[in-house]
Structures are given as C-alpha cells and as structure tokens.
C-alpha cells in the first residue's frame, strides 16, 4: 500500500506524463493587454477600452506586475458547467468558495445557495468580484456577490487577479480580484442547451441560454440581450441511518472520539478518528439516556426494547456507556444517525435576464446602459428530524409511556427519566428555501478628449443595485411548544391533554414521541406552524465612478501612462426576522401569521429549533480617489525593457474614517528571449461589512468566570460600529517565460506570494472577552460591566486576529501542431498552487497560532492542481483533464502518536492517526461542429467516480468536506450550441 508520500509522487508523475512539462493553465499575463479588441472594432469609432484587470491603466502594451490568470469563452465552454461559478471554483488559487454543495447543513448562516468566490482561502469577503470592472450589489449581509446572478452566456473572458488590488479597485481586494467581462459588441444570435445527471440518476439538470446582439444607425448604436434559465434538481436527503443517497455507499458516519484531557496521562492519544459513529444520547424513535432505565429504546408502536450500543457498550445508569467515549460508540444500532441525511447538493433554479445598449454621440463619446434581473431559488434539507440529544425529561405518568415502563419507574422509585430522540416520526424534514432576487441598473459614458496637448480617455458610470433575499424555512418546530406537547397527562373523560394549563389554553395538542408511531397531524401543526422562520433582507448599493487615462509625457524609455479618478459608494441593508425568531419589538410587532403565545419568549425571540433570524439595519458610505502611474525605466536591445507601476488610493469610510492603500511593482522583459521578471508589493484593505458593523442586537443570559468567581451576565450580541478596516501587505515575486523563439507556443510562470493581514475582524465568546479584559485589553473592557447590579458583556466583533498566507503559483501552457499530416492542435495546460504556510493568530488568551496549510478538513490543501490535454480542429475537440488535491492532515496542531503519547493540552491534543487523503479526479469532454451554426458537445466529470474522503468531526457532522472534495460523484452532461 503506498504511503502518503508515495501517493504524492505518483500523482506528480501522472501529471507530468499527462501534461509534459506544462505546469499550469493559461500562463499568467501570457496574453497581454495589446491582445484586446482594437479601436473601432465591430463598427465602433469610439476608442475601445483595454481591459487590464488588477490595474486602472488602459494604455496599449502595458504589462502589469500583478499576476493574472485569464479564462476566455472557449475555455469556459470546454468546462461545460451549468454555472460558471463551478468552473472557476476549480482553479487552484480559488480556495474556500461557497456553492450549492456547501453549507447545506446550516439553517441560519445566510450563505446557503450563495455562489461566491474566495481566493487563497481568505474567504469571499476578501475577494472582490466585479462585472466589467464594476462593483455589484451584495447578495447577503456580508456584501459578497453571487456569481449565479451574472449573465453567463455573454461572458467573453474572466480574469483572476491573484494579488492585492485595493489601490486599483478599493476595499475587499485583499486576496485578489475576479473580473467577469462581457462581450459588449456581440452581433448575431447564439444559444446553448444542456442537460445532465449524476451516475446515481439524481441531480438532474437542464440549462437554456440565449443571447442576441445587433448594431443600429450605421453602427453608432448597439444592443445586446441575453436570457437564461438553469435548474439543478439536487440530491434528496436519504434521511436517517447513514445510508448514502440513491445508492451512494461511501458514507460511514465518521467522527472523532475525544477523551477528556485528564485521562491522557496513560500514554494513549486523546483523539481517535472512527467510522460508524453512534451517538448514544439519542435513538431513532427515542432512548432513555440516564438512570436505572438507561438503554431502553422504543420501536414499532412504542414497544420498548434494549438498545444495542456499539463498542460492546453497557449503560452505567449515569449517562455514560462503558467502552464508549462520550458522545460516541462505534457500531451498534445506527438507525437514528442524522449526519448522512444532509442534502448533498441543493435544488437550485437560476433565472437571469440582461441587456446592454450603447450609442455614440459622435466619434469621441459614447453613452451606455445595462440592466440586469436575476433570481436564484435554492432548496435543501440541513438535517432530518430535529434531534434532541439527552436534553428531554419525560414524566413516568405520561400516558404515552408504555405500561411496562411505568411499572419499571415505580419499581425503581423514579418519577421521570432523561430522554433523547431523532424525532424520526416527524412526517417531513426541515426545508430551507433562500431566494435571492437582484435588480441592477448602470448608466455610463466613455470616450476620449484632448487636454494639455495630449489625448485622454475617460470612463464613467453610475450604478444602483438591489438584492432582495427571502429565506423561508418549512417544517421547523418551536421549542417551547414541542416541550409542552410531549409532556402529557390524562384529562377529563380519560382524554390525553398537555400538562401545562397555560399551553392547553393556547391550543396545545399532545404529541407522542416514544416509538415508531404516526405523529398526530394536529400536534404537528401546533409545534410546526405553517409560517416557519422567515427572514426578509433588502441589500442596496449605489456607486458612482469616474476614471481618466492618458500618456501626459514621455521619458527616455517611452511614454508615461497615467490613470486617476474618484469613486463614491453607499451600502445599506435592512433585515427583518419573524416575531418568533426575532422577538416582538416596535420594528416587528405580532402579526396574524404569528399570533401571540404565552409560552414563547416575546422579547428575545430565539423560539425556533433553528433559524432564529433577527432584525437589523445599517448603512455606510465611502468616498475615495486614486491615481496610478506606469513609468518606463529602460528599453534597449541588450537589457530588454522594464517599467515601474505605482498606485495609491485614499478612502474615507463614514464609520471608520480614512485609510490608504497602495501598490508598487515592476516588470522586466529581459534581454533573454521570452524571459520576464515581475515583482509587486501592496497595502490592501478590507472594510468591515454591514453585518459586522450593524449586526442585529440579541440579549440572552450567560455565565462567565471573572477572577475566580462565576457571574451571571447579560450576553448582549450586537454589531460594532467602531471596527477598523483590516490592513494587508501583499507581496508577489514572479518569473514568466512567454513563448520564446526556441519553444514557440510554450509559456509558463512561477510566482511566490506572501499575504499578511492584520487587524482581522473576528468574533469572540463571552468568556474570551472577559479573559482578554483581565489580560489588559482596554478596548474590550469598555464592552462590559462586571461590577454593577446589571452585569453584562457585549459580544461583538473586534480587530484582534491576524493571518499570513505564503506559497507558490505555477502556471503554463504549451500549444503545438499535431504534425505528421494529422489535423488539429494539441494544448497541454495546467495550474498548481502550493500553500507553504497559512497561519492564523486569533489574538485570544490561551490560544496559539494555527497552521491551516495542508489541513484537508479546511480550505487550503498543500497542493491544489488542475491539468488538461486538448486536441482541437476546426470541427472537433476532445479534452482530458485532471483535478488534484494533495494528501493532508486533520489539523497541524495535533500530535500524532500511538503509544507513549505526551499529555494532551487544549492547544496541542494528541491523535492516533492524523492523515487525511487527498483526491485525484479525471474529467473528459468533447465537441463536434455539425455545421457552421450547430455544435454538439458532451462532458463527464469525475470519470472514475471517486468518493469523497471522510471528514470526521467532534459532534454530529456532515462527514464530508465539500469545499475540497467532489461530493456528487460521476456527472454526465450533453448539450448543443447554436450561433447565427
């Protein structure tokens, strides 16, 4: 059996054999700005802007020092995904992106169904996603955009800038920029029809796209429009027991057994990764979890039976089980496990309509507008039932308790018992339904003018966008009503009623949860009202931008390029939660849909089992100006040519004041054929988002330890309007070999990156804030009062943490004719990102910096690679591609040992086996042009149907990591493209 190291070598060898010496896909900056559309193309007389993502300079021939990977329309077509997001998320530098297979085990996160891109594992909030170089209104309270809402058929290229770009584009471009560029001069008609499904005959999907464009008035006016509909039907929940959905056999209830630290003096490891984990604190239809009757489960028609514990476990009567480590045994009766019942892929429908029009006032000035409508509707099940882990108390006189158990209660002198259940007799599972609807309008102008004896170009636009986000949750129970309904007694006429008279007066209907018995529809309607948790959000963004480009003078090596401009932006949001989740306030009074109930908490809310949404409102505005210069340093036959690029931006936020970002870099096209060197360093910023600044206030009671005394305090969770922007220092050094004469068609690059982020915004627990105050942090001390009669701790985000990510990007491409009289060209491509280190320091007392590089439970494996080999002719193409995740660990802080282990600590626990396998996927695809107007194609992803690697957790978990691994299995797609 090959070791992890040997497996890595095997994978590298396979990639080398497949891709020859091409280490990456499109060489960074291999296609310079000069390749952009020439002036006057498509009948236009106005100077066409040159797209150089990551820079605001549009001078022709300008080569920026920041690495940029470009995917053009032909590349995106070969990937043949229903959503361009999925194609981009596979790029190695993009790590931690969210999509429809992530966060499906969450009800309240707000990011479910959100297709947002993340560079370097820094998170979508530190990756700026643009459409035609313009900001797009956020699709949730953190302000990140939803790529699913973009017009995808009209995208002619996507630029991924893998370096800081705040000086050019402003806040959030810490990890880099992803810029989607549309074909503004498209003429004719084109359409795409696609359909597919997985190897398990689920996640059936269909995509319909059409685009049209035409010039008018002798080419002075141009109009393009597109419409698309895409539906991916998802993978249904298999519900309980750990059985994989629709025949998937790979799910085995993985988990970590964790021993108490005090027991690790025996030389054995604290953590053990297991499969077939059995949580012994509940069973499918109910389990007595403590006392003399511990181990009694309930089955068909409520009949009691002896529960089969895994690990040969025997209940102790005290809540523990011999041979098991709380809360897990291994094996036994797994019928009630819920981890495998999480939806693998959401049911998602996308509707997008887009139009852009332009009109040339004269040869120098053009007006344009664009309108975008998009709706993304997602549905999924976070978990089956509503598991109650050993936190219920059942009275022995409850008439639903079988007579034999009532007799056993009397014999053992008890009047109640502790109880846990999966609630598998609930007829319907929880369903979360986020719907995001975007309306966005842009009005702008671009053109050219003369000033100071020089020609200048300008680009100006104003945009307003709104995203309306409605989250509706069905089949969700109210905790207080559930507790009242399961606590039953005999009433008048020997009827069964709820014990609590207040609950009876407000409509309580008793519910039997002991055994496999049909749930009373009236009881279910009482505990799961038709109007479940609701959240309505309105996110608005208004932007005005003006930029000027020109070459005001020349130096000894050529003209100096200058770009400058100003921008203003306003961001605002308004969130409304339902009264049961939010609590009743002036902003959310009782409504007929949510009638008053004396059992429910009317002030704080938090009454639902999950999905307690709260009201929030906030806004901020930004004013900024920028300037960028490109200075030619020298140009000679022997030394080559070099330039120096520098940019600065001054930004003023209404909440946190002023901050500066800048960059300085250089490219040197050496005298060595094809060899270019580049270096850039920058200061980048991420401003706190609306959610961090204006999070909804929530007040609950909690306890803290303060100087050796336990205190009961109010935990006041709220946003922090005093947050400062995060400040990053981003440095990149690179070598590019671009199509040398001795190797025509070959380009490659290697770049070293180093990203330091300080003042990282992070949230703390109540106890962590108290500990930091005791340690002397006066900013946090100001957020609490532990001496007055009303003691409180304000839980909010602070600028405490720091991050540093270092590594290498390798990219390249080799294109050559097949030769020997055979038709077509061969293209060998590949990308690879090596994350050398990714250290996070939380700033919290008692913690140590954590290393995320190579942690395959997270987002940043040591190596992430993408490789392809294509054969293309005028009529046909065939592509074989590979995706690779290197082997990793569960955590770099774990100490792996089998015997003679050191005593575990909170920061350095011991583990039996700290190895987590990577993955290697094969994809194939091809196309054939039936005639000049019609092309048919196919695509198979995960050809060998590689299963996802088990991702154990310390509690009931998903059991997989969809951020890194393919969780759907082999997928087939076929389609046709038409163009006239």
UniProtKB/TrEMBL annotation:
Every TonB-dependent receptor plug domain range: 64-177
PROSITE patterns the UniProt entry points to: PROKAR_LIPOPROTEIN, TONB_DEPENDENT_REC_3
Compartments in which it is found: Cell outer membrane
Record's signal peptide: 1-27
Xref: SUPFAM superfamilies: Porins (SSF56935)
Keyword annotations: Cell outer membrane, Membrane, Receptor, Signal, TonB box, Transmembrane, Transmembrane beta strand, Transport
Topology relative to the membrane: Multi-pass membrane protein
Family annotation (InterPro entries): Beta-barrel_TonB (IPR000531), Beta-barrel_TonB_sf (IPR036942), Plug_dom (IPR012910), Plug_dom_sf (IPR037066), TonB-dep_rcpt-like (IPR039426)
Residues annotated as domain TonB-dependent receptor-like beta-barrel: 451-943
Entries under PANTHER family matching the protein: PTHR47234, SECRETIN_TONB SHORT N-TERMINAL DOMAIN-CONTAINING PROTEIN
Record-stated family: Belongs to the TonB-dependent receptor family.
Descriptive protein name: Outer membrane receptor protein involved in Fe transport
UniProt source species: Pelomonas aquatica
Lineage of the organism: Bacteria, Pseudomonadati, Pseudomonadota, Betaproteobacteria, Burkholderiales
């Amino acid at each position: 059996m090959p070791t992890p190291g040997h497996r890595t070598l095997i994978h590298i060898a396979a990639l080398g054999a497949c891709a020859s010496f091409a280490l990456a896909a499109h060489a960074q900056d291999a296609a310079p700005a000069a390749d952009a559309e020439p002036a006057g193309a498509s009948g236009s007389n106005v100077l066409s802007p040159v797209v150089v993502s990551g820079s605001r300079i549009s001078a022709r021939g300008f080569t920026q020092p920041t690495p940029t990977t470009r995917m053009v329309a032909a590349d995106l077509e070969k990937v043949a995904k229903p959503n361009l997001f999925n194609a981009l998320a596979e790029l190695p530098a993009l790590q931690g992106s969210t999509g429809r297979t992530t966060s499906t085990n969450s009800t309240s996160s707000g990011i479910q169904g959100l297709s947002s891109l993340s560079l370097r594992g820094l998170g979508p909030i530190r990756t700026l996603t643009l459409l035609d170089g313009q900001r797009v209104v956020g699709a949730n309270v953190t302000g990140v955009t939803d790529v699913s809402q973009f017009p995808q058929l009209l995208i002619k290229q996507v630029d991924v800038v893998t370096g800081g770009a705040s000086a050019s584009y402003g806040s959030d471009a810490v990890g880099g920029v992803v810029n989607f560029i549309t074909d503004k001069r498209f003429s004719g008609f084109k359409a795409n029809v696609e359909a597919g499904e997985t190897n398990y005959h689920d996640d059936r999907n269909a995509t319909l796209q059409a685009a049209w464009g035409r010039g008018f008035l002798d080419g002075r006016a141009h109009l393009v429009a597109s419409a698309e509909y895409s539906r991916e039907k998802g993978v249904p929940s298999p519900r309980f027991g750990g059985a994989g959905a629709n025949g998937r056999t790979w799910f085995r209830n993985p988990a970590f057994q964790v021993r108490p630290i005090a027991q690790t003096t025996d030389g054995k490891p604290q953590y053990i990764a297991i499969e077939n984990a059995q949580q012994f604190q509940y069973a499918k239809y109910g389990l007595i979890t403590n006392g003399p009757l511990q181990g009694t489960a309930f089955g068909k028609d409520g009949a009691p039976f002896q529960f089969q514990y895994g690990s040969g476990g025997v209940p102790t009567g005290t809540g523990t089980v011999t041979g098991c480590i709380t809360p897990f045994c291994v094996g036994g009766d797994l019928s009630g496990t819920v981890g495998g019942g999480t939806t693998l892929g959401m049911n998602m429908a996308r509707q997008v309509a887009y139009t852009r029009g332009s009109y040339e006032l004269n040869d120098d000035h053009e007006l344009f507008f664009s309108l975008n409508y998009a709706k993304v509707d997602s549905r999924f099940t976070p978990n089956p039932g509503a598991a109650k882990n050993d936190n219920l108390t059942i009275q022995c006189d409850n008439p639903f308790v079988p007579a034999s158990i009532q007799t056993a209660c009397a014999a053992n002198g008890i009047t109640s018992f502790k109880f846990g259940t999966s609630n598998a007799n609930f007829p319907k599972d929880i369903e979360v339904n986020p719907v995001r609807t975007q309306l966005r309008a842009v009005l702008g102008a671009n053109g050219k003018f003369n000033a100071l004896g020089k020609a200048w170009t300008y680009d100006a636009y104003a945009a307003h966008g709104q995203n309306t986000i409605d989250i509706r949750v069905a089949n969700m129970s109210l905790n207080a009503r559930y507790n009242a309904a399961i606590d039953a007694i005999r009433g008048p006429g020997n009827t069964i009623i709820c014990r609590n008279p207040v609950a009876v007066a407000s409509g309580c209907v008793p519910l039997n949860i002991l055994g496999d018995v049909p749930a009373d529809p009236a009881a279910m309607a009482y505990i799961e009202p038709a109007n479940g948790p609701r959240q309505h959000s309105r996110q608005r963004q208004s932007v005005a931008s003006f930029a000027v480009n020109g070459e005001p003078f020349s130096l000894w090596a050529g003209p100096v390029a200058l770009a400058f401009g100003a921008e203003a932006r306003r961001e605002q949001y308004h969130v409304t939660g339902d009264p049961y989740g939010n609590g009743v306030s002036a902003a959310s009074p009782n409504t007929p849909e949510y009638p008053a109930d004396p059992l429910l908490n009317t002030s704080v809310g938090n009454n639902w089992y999950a999905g307690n949404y709260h009201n929030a409102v906030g806004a901020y505005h930004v004013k900024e100006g920028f300037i960028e210069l490109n200075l030619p340093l020298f140009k000679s036959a022997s030394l080559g040519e070099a330039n120096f690029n520098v940019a600065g931006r001054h930004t003023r936020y209404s909440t946190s004041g002023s901050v500066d970002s800048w960059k300085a870099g250089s490219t040197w096209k050496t005298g060595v054929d094809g060899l270019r060197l580049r270096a850039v360093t920058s200061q980048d910023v991420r401003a706190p988002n609306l959610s961090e600044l204006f999070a909804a206030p929530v007040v609950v009671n909690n306890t803290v330890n303060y100087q050796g005394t336990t205190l009961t305090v109010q935990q006041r969770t709220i946003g922090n309007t005093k947050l400062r922007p995060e400040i990053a220092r981003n440095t990149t050094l690179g070598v590019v070999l671009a199509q040398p004469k001795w190797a025509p068609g070959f380009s490659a690059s290697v770049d070293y990156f180093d990203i330091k982020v300080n003042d990282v915004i992070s949230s703390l627990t109540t106890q962590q804030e108290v500990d930091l105050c005791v340690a002397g942090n006066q900013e946090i001390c100001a957020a609490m009062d532990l001496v007055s009669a009303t003691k409180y701790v304000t839980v909010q985000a602070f600028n405490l943490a720091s991050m540093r990510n270092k590594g290498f990007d390798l990219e390249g491409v080799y294109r050559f004719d097949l030769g020997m009289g055979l038709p077509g060209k061969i293209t060998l491509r590949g990308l690879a990102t090596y994350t050398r280190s990714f250290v996070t320091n939380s700033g919290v007392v008692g913690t140590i910096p954590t290393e995320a590089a190579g942690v395959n439970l997270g987002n940043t494996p040591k190596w992430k690679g993408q490789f392809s080999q294509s054969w293309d002719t005028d009529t046909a193409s065939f592509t074989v591609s590979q995706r690779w995740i290197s082997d990793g660990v569960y955590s770099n802080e774990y100490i792996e040992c089998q015997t003679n282990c050191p005593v575990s600590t909170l920061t350095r626990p011991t583990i039996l086996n700290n190895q987590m396998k990577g993955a290697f996927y094969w994809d194939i695809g091809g196309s054939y042009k039936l005639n000049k107007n019609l092309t048919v194609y196919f695509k198979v992803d995960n050809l060998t149907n590689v299963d996802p690697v088990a991702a154990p957790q310390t509690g009931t978990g998903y059991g997989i990591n969809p951020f890194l691994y393919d969780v759907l299995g082999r997928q087939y797609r076929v389609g046709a493209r038409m163009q006239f």
